[in-house]
Amino acid sequence: MLMPRKPLFLDRDGVLNRDITPYVSTLDEFDVFPWTVEALTMLDRAGFDLYVISNQQGVALGITPAEELEKMNARMQSLLAPHGFQIRKFYYCTAKMDEEHEWRKPSPGMVFAARDEFGLDLEGAFFIGDKDTDMECSHSAGTRALLVYSGVSYPGESISWGCPPEKEFPTLLEAARWIVSKESGRR
Q1: How many domains does the chain have?
Q2: What share of the chain is helix, strand, coil (3-state, %, to 5)?
Q3: Does residue 164 lie within any of the structural domains?
Q4: Which of 13, 130, 132, 134 is catalytic?
Q5: pLDDT in tens, 86-106
Q6: Alpha-carbon 112 to chain mean position
Q7: Is 11 considered catalytic here?
Q8: What does the alpha-carbon distance between residue 143 and residue 62 come to, in Å, rounded to a whole number?
Q9: Is residue 39 one of the residues assigned to a domain?
Q10: CA spacing 20 to 30 A to 83: which of 42, 76, 95, 185?
């Protein structure tokens, strides 16, 4: 019997690509980590549909042109296409931090938008991020929060967070390996 595919949510900057200050604002600055394609391919092969959930206030601040986000999406998809899959959808909140937009992490609005648009079952779904707002978003959405240190957080920092991760990893690749090993034991 064919197992249904599961949703997996990913922050972008610091998880899929290098995060820079103040923002990754142009395609030239969009530097995908060397392990990203391997990790995402592993997750796809293990039966996950991938959704990017990312705050991008640089757009509202006039630092990141909206068309550059689309170019970055296209670059990511072009890296994955030879492996036979794509990110299912990119969700961005471009509102400023002080606007309290329902999509802006730590609010779970983007995860809920994906759930509603694609009819997703969030039970047991993973959310991989690199900061406390990702962990809080994951907890609020009822997903399993995983932290990676390839972005802005460092080992031990999460101990003081109100919403700690279930598990922590150096990079997305180690997180993907762990997820795949857990999932293979359930089938």
Answers
A1: 1
A2: 40, 20, 45
A3: yes
A4: 13
A5: 999 999 999 999 998 999 999
A6: 14
A7: yes
A8: 32
A9: yes
A10: 185
